[in-house]
Amino acid sequence: MEMIVDRVGIIQEGEIKKEGKLSDLIFHSVTSYEIVFSGIAEKILTDNRVKFVLQDKNYLSKAETNEDTNKTIRLITKNRGKILAVTPVKMTLEDIFLEEINQ
């Protein structure tokens, strides 16, 4: 559905719970950020309490807040690591629907 619509309305028991542009609803539904990086010693990450997994010779870290994302990026760049990607993890239309009807 997300691929073919541009506006969405969530209706429960005949009442409009939420409506608007799909892009606006999803934009405001970022739940975390995934940071993919390389070139930094694991000891530096563990000493700074950065949670990560090794994935195809790169590290993947998940930051729950903007502050954690910025802190992790600063740590990587300060230690001459290479940031390969920073990706926001967003709720799907189904997640938004379920959240609205369960309120």
What's the CATH C level?
Alpha Beta
Mean pLDDT over all positions: 89
Give the name of the CATH architecture: 2-Layer Sandwich
User: Please, how many helices?
Assistant: 4
Give the spatial strand order of the biggest sheet: 4-5-3-6
Structural class: alpha+beta
How many angstroms separate the termini?
23 Å
Stated plainly, the CATH topology is called: Alpha-Beta Plaits
Question: What would your notes on this structure say?
Answer:
- A hairpin with a 2-residue loop joins strand 4 (53-55) and strand 5.
- This protein has 4 helices and 6 strands.
- The radius of gyration is 18 Å and the shape is elongated.
- It has a single domain, classed as 2-Layer Sandwich (Alpha-Beta Plaits), CATH 3.30.70.
- It has 103 residues and is α+β, with helices and mostly antiparallel strands.
- The model has no long low-confidence stretch (mean pLDDT 89).
Ordered list of secondary-structure elements with their pairings:
Layout lengths: L6 E6 L2 E7 H6 L2 E9 L3 H6 L5 E3 L2 E6 L2 H13 L3 E9 L2 H9 L2
Antiparallel strand pairs: 1-2, 3-5, 3-6, 4-5
